[in-house]
Design brief:
Length: 203
């Protein structure tokens, strides 16, 4: 998919404040610092569309970006940020659950996981809750430029094994890097394929 335009629309503290549900929408979710904002910038070819930071917890609101005047890309706040209070963590869950349950225009969520680390409970819990709610999602491995091919393959195989302990089938998986742009075409292609389905259903 060719990205003709990409711009920031708004940041919302609650799902009620999000833009009208008049376009298909795709969200990025994952642990703080996993590389959500960086990957959004990589797929849209914009260095500063979404704010990135070496400090976890940079994105704390639901951020909507409009792409090609056709669909929304959503940068969600990261979870698992160690310095966050219990109260803030609970607020994050309410914010995200409300968003996921009510956002009918949400076509797919990309759950980002760091390819360098072992499967984490918080990520697996999130994947379980998506599965239980029957919400469509894709697992996206990030930061793969930091690993040699054989280590990457080993880590991904271990992740798949862990998922298969709970699920009969593996979800869709995309392997990416915001640095060398691995997987960005595939991710955009996947989004593009999901858009006509929405229009067929809704228009
Ligand atoms: P929060 O907004 O805090 O939830 O973080 P985030 O998930 O949006 O992460 P962000 O994109 O801000 O990236 C966090 C750090 O990881 C930054 O220092 C990025 O430069 C770095 N980073 C992100 N993606 C990649 C990648 O693909 N490769 C490498 N080498 N570094 C990356
Ligand atoms: Mg971010």
């Amino acid at each position: 998919m060719l990205i003709k335009t990409a711009s920031f629309v708004k940041s919302s503290a609650k799902y009620e404040q999000c833009p009208e549900m008049n376009m298909p929408e795709f969200a990025f979710i994952g642990r703080s610092n996993v590389g959500k904002s960086s990957l959004i910038n990589a797929i849209t070819n914009h260095k500063k569309l979404a704010k990135t930071s070496g400090t976890p917890g940079k994105t704390q609101l639901i951020n909507h970006f409009i792409i090609n005047e056709e669909w929304y890309l959503v940068d969600l706040p990261g979870y698992g940020f160690a310095k966050i209070s219990k109260k803030m963590r609970a607020e994050w869950k309410v914010m995200i659950d409300n968003y996921l349950y009510n956002r009918e225009s949400l076509m797919n969520t990309f759950i980002l996981v760091d390819s360098r680390i072992k499967p984490q409970k918080l990520d697996l819990d999130l994947i379980t809750s998506y599965g239980e709610k029957n919400l469509p999602f894709t697992i996206v491995f990030t930061k793969t430029d930091k690993l040699k091919d054989n280590i990457l393959a080993k880590n991904i195989a271990e992740y798949k094994r862990t998922l298969l302990e709970q699920w009969e089938e593996l979800p869709h998986i995309i392997i990416t890097s915001a640095i060398d742009k691995r997987g960005t075409e595939e991710l955009l292609g996947y989004i593009e394929e999901s858009i006509p389905i929405f229009f067929k259903d809704e228009h």
